[in-house]
């Protein structure tokens, strides 16, 4: 079979869609529009040229792997947008804040706030004038330190976005524990914490087992709930190569995402001229939201049937030799699968038995399979069980712990996985506290800290008194968005380290500080000269990053310098804690990381710019199962649906979506090219369901959360848009739709919010 005769299921032509390959001229045009429509310096092109290359700067967008032999341009459309956004000529300084009180800024859109440009000066909030006013770094550090000393440590939270480097993250986590708490949630709490908890339980590793070369060796890829085209476009290059060598690619996703349908390399002139791309998915199955457990169970059930028909030891369908040596509790899993009724499976996932049997037959013939997933699996009440079910499927044929096979969660923020690696975690059992105690001469707190969900609840309950945010836009990213908006003003301390203005910065009161920092592409000059930082990609490789751009303002500090300044003003002196030395030479911080995590970061400084990054290792990849049983765990899920409960008649499951012109809470433009949509206030719904509900295209409606907690959650002003979706679910963009996700709807194991599984009803607006 060639790339041209792969069977493709057609997009519903009556609904909006993008009728071109991902990449191609569309990608080129999008980058050029952002270059031309934003005020950016000419040097941004040189920055992009060096992006994701050894001794260049690592992109601040997604965490996809960087190859040892980079492409001519090793940046994607979304990475270019992130860099252009960072390096704008626009500035947001004291004059801007003097002209605009926060009461006014709260009425501005999220996009307009960020579009004001780079923050230039440290600022403090002045309640009398309702404005941010200029301050000095010394004043800020002294005041913040004094406030932290007054507050009980456990009444404060140190939040981190996923962009901060390994060096920054290590110092931030150390500061928190020296101060006296483990309240260290980060953005993974809202996306892949399900992975950290779920994979740790079943294979002993909190991260995926694949490396980049595995995608050159696999002969099958199974995708679940991941939108490669918008969320990690550089991943499309190895996918295209895999498709061209006849690797079979099967996708399970409620939405037909263009990146997993067709790709044209925008760096290949021949592909641009041809105007068509490489088909990616052999089979694309639009299952119901939250029904991945059922779909995988169907594949497993057919595998058992195939094994019964062909029990040969020469080419077994089920690798019972591997299971006997490496698996635990397989018998209970097998009994559960065999007892399942096909009608129950079909009803749960909305897919016919024949489709699941076809996938199972392909899988039975494959030799090396990778399971890839994103937040379509993680953001459900039983998200951990969905991940465990995918692990079950891979283990059945020994597809973890050998080349060309494994499990591959695709992470979002550029260093969100790395932060957890070096100590940003509310879970003390994931941190080598004894080593920290020995290295720095203190007794680290051992109690479990607050997750993101628990932070919001503490704010609602009046128990949160101080909040430090290392980047991010926490107030917009959280579930039940809006419920806590008025309460941020009541905090005694609110410190926001940021590069641009966002919603979290205007929902503040007395005791608020806005501290501007360098972006990764800018020069970071300290006492010993230019400094490099590091981050970890989705495939556990560590990359050095060296910024070369002139900083946006002479008043900016680096993130490590800001953390050190606050820490020195807060903590009692400790001869083993050398903040100034560490800020002067980040290599000393890397030495600390290497001593605290010797198995993963040995010779850290010597490997800083290894092409393709250096691999920190993964025991599960070597079939060293660091689980309770010492083996890989087969598990039985509590239900076939990850939703927790099914929507009743007339209700729908809400899937929150990210647009092509967006990175998490940062919205670059109101366009979603890869879905063929303009504007963000849209309700996506299947045409048949639209008609059954008595709705008309472009009708204005509200979405209302269906819950029994007595809290009203409502999002108005949505335009009804017929879209190619399965029955029973609707789609809307986040962060706008986060208002509809109840705080108490989260993964049972990790407390990751169920952003892909809230139950809603549609109310027409007269």
Brief write-up:
This protein is α/β, with parallel strands linked by helices. The strands form ten sheets. It has a six-stranded mixed sheet.
Describe this structure in words.
With 766 residues, the chain is an alpha/beta fold. It folds into 4 domains: 3-86, no CATH class; 136-191 and 429-612, Rossmann fold, CATH 3.40.50.740; 196-414, Dimethylsulfoxide Reductase, domain 2; 652-764, Barwin-like endoglucanases, CATH 2.40.40. The chain is 33% helix and 16% strand. The chain contains 30 helices and 33 strands. The strands form 10 sheets. The protein has a 6-stranded mixed beta sheet with strand order 5-4-17-16-15-6. A 6-stranded mixed barrel has the order 24-32-29-31-30-33. A hairpin with a 2-residue loop joins strand 25 (662-663) and strand 26 (666-667). Helix 8 packs parallel to helix 26. The longest helix has 18 residues, at 292-309.
The best one-word shape is globular
Count, helices: 30
Mean residue pLDDT: 94
User: What is the CATH architecture assignment of the largest domain?
Assistant: 3-Layer(aba) Sandwich
Strand order of the largest sheet: 5-4-17-16-15-6
Q: What fold name stands as the CATH topology of the largest domain? A: Rossmann fold
Share in β-strands: 15-25%
Helix content, binned percent:
25-40%
Poorly predicted runs are 1-7
Q: What structural category do the secondary elements indicate?
A: alpha/beta
Biggest sheet record? 6 strands, mixed
The total number of structural domains is: 4
Q: What is the number of beta strands?
A: 33
CATH class of the largest domain: Alpha Beta
Distance between the termini: 54 Å
Radius of gyration, rounded?
25 Å
């Amino acid at each position: 079979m060639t790339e041209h005769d792969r069977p493709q299921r057609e997009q519903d032509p009556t609904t909006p869609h993008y009728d071109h390959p991902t990449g191609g001229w569309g990608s080129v045009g999008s980058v050029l529009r952002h270059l031309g429509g934003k005020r950016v310096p000419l040097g941004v092109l040189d920055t992009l040229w060096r992006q994701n290359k050894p001794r260049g700067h690592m992109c601040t967008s997604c965490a996809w792997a960087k190859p040892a032999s980079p492409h001519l341009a090793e940046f994607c459309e979304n990475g270019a947008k992130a860099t252009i956004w960072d390096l704008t000529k626009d500035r947001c300084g004291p004059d801007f804040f003097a002209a605009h009180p926060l009461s006014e800024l709260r009425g501005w859109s999220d996009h307009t706030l960020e579009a004001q440009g780079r923050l230039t000066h440290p600022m403090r909030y002045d309640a009398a004038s309702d404005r941010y006013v200029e301050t000095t770094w010394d004043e800020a550090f002294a005041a913040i330190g004094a406030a932290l000393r007054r507050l009980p440590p456990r009444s404060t939270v140190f939040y981190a976005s996923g962009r901060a480097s390994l060096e920054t993250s290590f110092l931030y986590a150390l500061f928190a524990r020296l101060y006296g708490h483990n309240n260290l949630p980060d953005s993974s709490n809202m996306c892949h914490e399900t992975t950290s908890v779920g994979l740790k339980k079943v294979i002993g590793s909190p991260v995926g087992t694949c490396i980049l070369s595995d995608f050159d060796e696999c002969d099958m890829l199974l995708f679940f709930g991941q939108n490669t085209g918008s969320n990690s476009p550089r991943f499309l290059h190895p996918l295209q190569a895999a498709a061209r060598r006849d690797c079979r690619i099967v996708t399970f996703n409620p939405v037909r995402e263009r990146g997993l349908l067709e790709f044209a390399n925008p760096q290949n002139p021949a592909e641009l001229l041809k105007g068509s791309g490489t088909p990616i998915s052999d089979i694309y199955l639009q299952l119901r939201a939250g029904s991945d457990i059922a779909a995988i169970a169907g594949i497993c059930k057919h595998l058992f049937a195939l094994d019964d028909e062909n029990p040969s030891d020469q080419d077994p369908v089920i690798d019972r030799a591997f299971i006997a040596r490496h698996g635990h509790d397989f018998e209970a899993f097998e009994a559960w699968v065999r007892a399942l009724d096909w009608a129950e499976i079909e009803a749960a996932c909305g897919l016919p038995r024949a489709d699941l049997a076809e996938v199972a037959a392909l899988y039975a013939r494959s030799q090396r399979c990778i399971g890839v997933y994103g937040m379509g699996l993680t953001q459900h009440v039983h998200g951990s069980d969905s991940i465990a079910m995918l692990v079950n499927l891979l283990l059945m044929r020994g597809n973890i712990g050998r080349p060309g096979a494994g499990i591959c969660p695709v992470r979002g923020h550029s260093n969100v996985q790395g932060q957890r690696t070096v100590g940003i975690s509310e879970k003390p059992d994931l941190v080598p506290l004894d080593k920290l105690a020995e290295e720095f001469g203190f007794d680290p707190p051992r109690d479990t800290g607050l997750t993101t969900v628990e932070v919001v609840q503490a704010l609602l309950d009046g128990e949160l008194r101080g909040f430090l945010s290392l980047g991010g836009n926490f107030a917009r990213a959280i579930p039940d968005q809006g419920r806590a908006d008025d309460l941020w003003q009541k905090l005694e301390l609110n410190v926001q380290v940021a590069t641009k203005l966002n919603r979290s910065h205007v929902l503040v009161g007395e005791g608020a500080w806005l501290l501007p920092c360098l972006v990764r592409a800018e020069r970071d000059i300290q006492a010993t000269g230019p400094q490099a930082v590091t981050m970890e990609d989705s495939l556990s490789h560590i990359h050095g990053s060296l910024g070369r751009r002139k900083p946006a303002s002479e008043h900016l500090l680096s993130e490590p310098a800001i953390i050190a300044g606050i820490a020195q003003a807060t903590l009692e002196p400790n001869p083993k804690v050398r903040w100034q030395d560490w800020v002067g030479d980040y290599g000393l911080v890397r030495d600390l990381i290497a001593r605290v995590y010797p198995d993963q970061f040995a010779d850290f400084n010597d490997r800083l710019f290894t092409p393709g990054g250096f691999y920190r290792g993964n025991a599960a990849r070597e079939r060293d199962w660091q689980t309770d049983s010492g083996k890989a765990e087969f598990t039985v899920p509590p239900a076939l649906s990850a939703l927790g409960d099914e929507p009743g008649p007339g209700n729908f499951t809400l899937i929150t979506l990210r647009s092509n012109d967006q990175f998490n809470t940062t919205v670059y433009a109101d366009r979603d090219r890869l879905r063929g949509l303009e504007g963000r206030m849209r309700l996506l719904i299947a045409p048949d369901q639209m008609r059954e509900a008595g709705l008309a295209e472009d009708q204005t409606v509200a979405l209302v959360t269906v819950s029994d907690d007595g809290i009203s959650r409502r999002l108005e002003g949505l335009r009804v848009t017929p879209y190619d979706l399965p029955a029973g679910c609707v789609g809307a963009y986040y962060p706008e739709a986060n208002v509809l996700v109840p705080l108490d709807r989260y993964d049972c194991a990790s407390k990751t919010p169920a952003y892909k599984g809230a139950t809603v009803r549609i109310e027409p607006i007269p």
